[in-house]
Design goal:
single chain, about 190 residues, mainly alpha, 2 domains, globular
Length: about 190
């Protein structure tokens, strides 16, 4: 998977490698690998806000990332509409960040859709490893993405035959999904 483009001038200008390095950590780092794109962008923007240049609306966007249950373009659109309809001054101060994040997410989706089919594959060895693991244990997909996108990707890569449990953001956070599954197994 290609890293989401985050250097578009209206969101993050390329600042002497610092932000680039930080975004690389989001993409391949051990600690936060697999983070939802909206939460990852929030971390990058917060880092920029703290170290380089103030980002108008970052506090409101960070709050949204902490309370929203579904991370999606539809959820962003609902938030934008709710602010518009609330007559709250807060919207006028922060609407830009939500609209920019929505534009950025759409750009990421266009770039993913534009990939050649040969680039939309699982990493080498994944299918074989899942096949082998599924002979000895239950296997689960736990993703912070929406179920439609994840199911489409796993079907396209021919991996669904090796999955016993499929849990996505509609079921809760990754932690909640693992906790629910763990306790169901204990019963």
């Amino acid at each position: 998977m290609i890293p989401p483009p985050v250097f578009d001038n209206y969101i993050i200008p390329n600042i002497s490698g610092g932000i680039y390095f930080f975004s690389g950590l989001l993409e391949v780092g051990v600690v936060i690998r697999g983070i939802n794109r909206f939460c990852g962008l929030q971390r990058i923007l917060t880092e920029k806000d703290n170290r380089y240049k103030k980002i108008e609306g970052i506090d409101v966007y960070s709050e949204w990332c902490s309370y929203t249950k579904i991370f999606s373009e539809a959820a962003l659109e609902e938030t934008i509409e709710a602010y518009k309809n609330s007559n709250a001054g807060l919207f006028y101060q922060s609407q830009g960040i939500f609209e920019k994040v929505l534009d950025w997410s759409r750009m990421v989706n266009r770039e993913i859709e534009g990939l050649e089919e040969k680039e939309k594959t699982a990493f080498d060895g994944v299918k074989e490893a899942l096949s082998e693991a599924s002979k000895f244990a239950d296997t689960a997909v736990v993703s912070s993405a929406n179920s439609k996108a994840v199911e489409e990707e796993w079907h396209r890569c021919g991996l669904m035959d090796y999955v016993d449990y499929f849990m996505t953001q509609e079921m809760g956070s990754k932690e909640e999904c693992v906790f629910i599954q763990f306790w169901q197994e204990k019963k």
